[in-house]
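Sat 14:20. Reprocessing the chain from the morning session after the first attempt stalled halfway. Input below, unchanged.
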Amino acid sequence: MDRLEENRRVMVRLPHYLVDALDRVADDEGRRRSEVIRESVEFYLAEQRRQQLRQELIQGYQEMGHLNATMAEAPWDLVTFTRE
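Finished this time. Tokens:
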């Protein structure tokens, strides 16, 4: 992959108070504004993915709840395990 294709330039409009806060954070940490923005976007996307996975797990447990209850209430044949 060629170096120019690794990163894309994106223009975003932000209110002045966000830019001011962003610049303070970047200055305090000795980083560039673009680094802080990139890290923030990565964090946001990862958090969105975590929330999506959590919702999928909740839905799966809800859908499987009846099956789990049926299995828990089903009679089980008692099996004796012995060591040989």
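Residues 11 and 59 are 37 Å apart (CA to CA).
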